[in-house]
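hey can u run this one w/ nicotinamide-adenine-dinucleotide bound, need the structure tokens asap thx
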Amino acid sequence: MKLLLTGGAGYIGSHTCIELLNLDIDVVVIDNLSNSSYHSLERVQSITDKNITFIEGDVRDKELLRSIFRQGDIDGVIHFAGLKAVGESNEIPLQYYDNNLNSTITLLQIMEEYDCRNFIFSSSATVYGNPEKLPITEDFPLSVTNPYGRTKLMNEDILRDFYKVKNNWNIVLLRYFNPVGAHPSGLIGEDPNGIPNNLLPYITQVAVGKLGKLNIFGDDYDTPDGTGIRDYIHVVDLAKGHAAALQKLKIGSGLNIFNLGTGRGYSVLEMVDTFSKVNNLKIDYQIVSRREGDIASCYADPSKANKELNWKAIYGLEDICRDAWNWQSNNPNGYKKTR
Ligand code: NAD
Ligand code: UFG
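ok here u go:
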């Protein structure tokens, strides 16, 4: 089997490369390196002792995509490529819509030309908006509050509309909860540009001395300790979720949606505490006001993926904190930014 991974040099894509290569799947990556480095793929190759075919370029480039499909028997696509920062999406919405929507549309058009009908899409728990109850199942109502989230929901809608008329396709929408942690080797991990937006990379950068103290966005939520609760999923578990989703591609056509989460939520303070204990480090923090757009609690009901994909997250919060620190402490500046 040969798969094309768009955005495969990024955080989740690079971890997924490892799981696929370990299953002897041939991996072709297209990435414009706008938010990643080729070093991630070099390291993936050294971890697995296998080769990746890498094409540097933009998924919206039709001719480039044609040249990839023309060359090889691509059996399916996992579409990770996209811009992903919620705050930034409010600043530059057109770039988000252009990148995140046109990449999907272009891919689907070129896949059609080459009769490749297997498509896995990186969606997000953000499409559930502020859920009325918990845990969240896949049939919950969908709503979004920012351009990034809207691109995820619009992509889902595009794929649902497309499937209505192309029901010989096989489409899987994977709704990730909060991906965190790093490969246990410490060789690949999350390498955000600038100051991290997300909690765990912020904590690890405080721990390594790059940032002063953590700002905790609100302690007045309706949660046991007042801080926000999220479903943190180890990126290796998430990567294995993609490998598990390939089963759906093998059993005929369909459009399937799965939550990829652990089913358990932790608060910001629980995250800080666990990180400190596991790594024997003190994390300075202060409570500041809520971040606009944040919700109190969000965690998955992952039982559909457990049953239908035979997949379950196995790593716990301690593993997450250990592996995130292992990556950050061994790579204080992430990947070198040049190729
Ligand atoms: P990432 O930024 O590390 O990876 C995305 C990759 O896509 C990057 O390597 C970037 O260079 C590449 N890219 C972006 N636009 C491109 C284009 N037009 N052509 C070619 N390459 C392009 O992000 P990630 O955390 O690995 O996320 C992967 C996917 O999962 C994204 O679609 C993201 O929205 C989604 N997702 C991420 C999270 C999260 O918290 N990390 C949560 C839910 C969903
Ligand atoms: N938080 C802080 N301080 C920080 C960063 C975060 O207190 O410096 C808190 C937030 O308020 C929230 C929790 O930590 O309660 C998690 O915040 P993240 O920014 O790590 O994650 P979010 O749940 O806000 O969003 C993430 C991704 C989105 C994705 C969403 C659901 O960033 O892209 O998960 O998958 F849509």
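The two ends are 28 Å apart (CA to CA). anyway lmk if its weird
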